[in-house]
Design goal:
By secondary structure, the chain is of the alpha+beta class. It has 2 domains: 12-136, Glutaredoxin (3-Layer(aba) Sandwich); 161-204, no CATH class. It has helices at 55-65, 107-121, 193-201; strands at 12-17, 20-25, 29-34, 71-76, 88-92, 95-99, 135-136, 179-183, 186-190. The two termini are 40 Å apart. Bound molecules: FE2/S2 (inorganic) cluster.
């Protein structure tokens, strides 16, 4: 640790690419923000009820903090859980922390505050009060680990699996869906004909297991 500022000294890793060695700065983590500009299908779409997220708000906050060498910022396309957007995902200290429903610009500095707090602590911390309702685990926990849950007890109940389009994992109500098939003794609903077509080509591929 550098005692002057409590941070670890910068370190690099040597990587070989195209036959040459390069030094890559090792960072504590990466924040991925789902961005309309990069082809998201829901996040940032005002017409779909989401705040039109300006990439600039995120990048200005990131630059203002001078944390480029500790936390990388990436604007991504669709991260997957579109129904919960606006979405972001923070990979830090070997953990993937998912953010959803980021529909206020006020939340942007709070996400960075949380990331910086964890960088300074050198470990994953529970979300602060302002973000508690915006943080959850999307990835399954490693089979054996000292694992700190991000969601409140009772939030991981598996409800709604019968409403998932098994191809794109969107929430679709079978009672009103236009595109359905009967399979395995139940009605499976799809958000679009393309999902239905993919499913019918190989139903076993989309078994609802993980
Ligand atoms: S569009 Fe953002 S997660 Fe899919």
């Amino acid at each position: 640790m550098n005692e002057a500022n409590g941070r670890r000294p910068l370190s690099t890793v040597r990587v070989n690419a195209r036959g040459e060695d390069y030094r890559v700065v090792r960072v504590g983590g990466n924040l991925f923000v789902c961005a309309k500009e990069n082809g998201s299908c829901c996040c940032g779409w005002e017409e779909k009820g989401r705040m039109p997220f300006e990439n600039q708000l995120w990048s200005d906050e990131w630059e203002r903090r001078g944390i480029r060498n500790r936390l990388h910022l990436t604007f991504s396309g669709c991260l997957g859980p579109c129904i919960a957007g606006n979405n972001a995902m923070l990979q830090l200290h070997g953990r993937s922390i998912w953010f959803k429903d980021l529909n206020s610009a006020d939340l942007i500095p709070k996400v960075f505050d949380y990331a910086e707090e964890m960088l300074a602590a050198g470990k994953v911390l529970p979300p602060p009060d302002d973000l508690r309702g915006h943080v959850y685990d999307r990835y399954l926990a490693p089979p054996e680990d000292d694992w700190l849950p991000m969601s409140a007890p009772g939030e991981d109940d598996g409800d709604g699996l019968d409403r998932l389009d098994p191809v794109c994992l969107m929430d679709v109500d079978p009672a009103t869906a236009k595109h359905t098939v009967e399979y395995g003794g139940r009605v499976i609903a799809f958000c679009a004909p393309s999902c239905k077509k993919q499913f019918l080509a190989n139903p076993a591929q989309f078994a609802m297991t993980s």
